[in-house]
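I have been asked to look over a protein record a colleague put together. This is what I was given:
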Amino acid sequence: MPQPRRLVRLSGSNAFSTIQLKEGAPVPKDVQVLRVGNFKHPRYGTFEITRQVLAEMKKNFDDRVRGIDTAFDYFHDSDKEASAWVEKLELREGGDQLWAVVDWTPAAEKKLAERELRYFSPDFAFKWTDPESGVEHDNVLFGGGLTNRPFVKEMSAIVADEKQTGETDMTELEKAQKALKESEAKVIKLTEDKASVEQQLAAAPAPSKVSELEAQIAKLQQELAAAKQSEQAALSEKAKSEEAAKLAEKTSQFNVLLSEGKACAAQKDAFLKGDMTEFIKLAQPTNAKGSGSSENKETAVDADKASKIIKLAEEKQKADPRLDRGNAISIAKKEIEAAEKK
């Protein structure tokens, strides 16, 4: 699989051991760091986490290849204060999950106890070179940040929700998928029950049994009609949730471009609609003189240039599947503009 070389950031203290959750349980020291799976990140593209990747992360931690203690932070601000220090890493669920046993700082333990933060998101690199020895290591965990919007879903929250409903950590899409699955199962069962009763009726039962079987069929037909309506409603809700999930993913991709200075606010609607020609036309030039400069105005890019940029971006995505569309366009635009200046 492709091996990104950049740092991948996938959006307990003894002194404070008396801090309790509202249910009275202490803040857990165990944190799920990562799990196996295939992922498509808006910034890092497509990549896979395997059991081997997790095992090598643990080995590199145990061998202290980075030469420093591993810290967790807040929101991936790794240069700022720590939220916890990792005491050890463990492989669980047959090697499918990587967990950390940590020593929380007092501030982090308090935030977790009050549920200001609930999730963890890891920072790691598939390839890391020791700056002193020059030795390259595969799959190195750098740490990670406490967050409320982790990239990797279906991971255990550090602290549970107060309601303890069993569906706390499910996204709206996951809930819709579950409801649809239950509705489909009900329709299948009712259909089978109805067929079974119809077979009994076709077998020429005793006259006293006929009316009873016919009543059962009539009741099953009503229940089946109602179940099919529920199934259609669940299907519609799933479609809405999928659309919302796609919009959220596109919004996340745009926010990455915005935070890196590769897009401006005026381009958001075009990006969300997938209108890349309009997205490029709304691009703003880099403002080297500050936000008050008259140079910081929207400029139009002619249609021919926009077409060239999109074509080059598509070529770059084919050459590097890890590259998402937004970054591909940004790189292509810079290359074409640089060529025009020569």
Observations:
- The chain is about 45% helix and 20% strand.
